[in-house]
From TrEMBL:
Annotated organism of origin: Psychrobacter namhaensis
A Pfam family of this chain: HTH_1
UniProt keyword terms in alphabetical order: DNA-binding, Transcription, Transcription regulation
Recorded family membership: Belongs to the LysR transcriptional regulatory family.
Record Gene3D superfamilies: Periplasmic binding protein-like II, Winged helix-like DNA-binding domain superfamily/Winged helix DNA-binding domain
Segments for region (Disordered): 205-227
InterPro entries, per database record: LysR_HTH_N (IPR000847), LysR_subst-bd (IPR005119), WH-like_DNA-bd_sf (IPR036388), WH_DNA-bd_sf (IPR036390)
Keyword ATP-binding assigned: no
PROSITE patterns named among the record's database cross-references: HTH_LYSR (PS50931)
Top-rank taxon, per record: Bacteria
Designated name of the protein: LysR family transcriptional regulator
HTH lysR-type domain: residues covered: 1-58
Amino acid sequence: MDLKQLNAFIAIANLRSFSAAAAQTGLSQPSLSRLLKQLETDMGVELIDRYHRPLHLTEAGAFFYDKISAILTEIDTVTSMTQRLSAPSPILNIGFVPSVLYGLLPEVIAMLKQSSPDIEVNLKDISSYQQMDALKSGDIDIGFGRFAHQDPWIQQILLRHERYVVALPKAHALAHVREQRLIDLANNRLILYHQTHLPISTTVTKPKSTKGNLSALTPGTKTSRANNEQAVLSQPITEPLLHLFAQYGISPFITTTVSDLQVALGLVAAGEGITLVPASLQTVRTEQISYQRLVHENVTSPIYLHTLKDFVHPNIPDLLTAIYHVYEQRGITYRRQQFT
């Protein structure tokens, strides 16, 4: 077997159609059919059931597809990394999650360009989870994210922990309370916005029983009563905000899940609930939202920096120097680290 045969099989298996696979690969249908037949002959196994429309994978074909897809992805990653190692791009492509942009990232980029005027920077808004694939494909060279990832291709360093603050509507009864406790927030609708969940699990053993009036749901959102049934509470809690409450044995009475942080703050501004955000976002919508400090010192959101293990872009050390310089100017405590 060879790569042409394997790629032909993957295209057919993905699209379940010879004509669609031909259009995607740029090969003729007879060429694709011949490559697939050669692969099946070499293996002595039928991979595609051609008598169904759309095409079906045989049981052996499904097994082969699952295993060979991962191998081909790894080959693509190695090929891309080898090309970048041979001829690094002069552009430093930086991925970031939106919450980091509201923090010190603009200052860091300004510092980087000031200290190294020849560096060309390209910023890309991309989620923590998607950054892993983007690093492997070469779409980005480094990423700022909020979550730790376990990936054999990726190395990461923890830059710092940022305190969460509670975002409340200006008309909320607690809007002017300077020191907030999670237990006092449990009766409110908590708006969840994270698209990436924690790789750890926590269970709530002693949930707080709460009662209260609930306002009408906002269209386009997904809502759940967080302590309706004990069975629900026994499940692993990996949603980041619920995890923070669960650390204190608290389960919010009701939650609403939205697509991103900006939507969450929009609902808070409209009086539809509360949420927790990193402190760097407390300048957003200040006319409608009151941001107050939480008394819990360990209720924080980490900031990680991710890059490939086997290829570190030549300008990444300059970026790290700029980050630590900004931290020093701001009086932020940090532990200096370098990528290996």
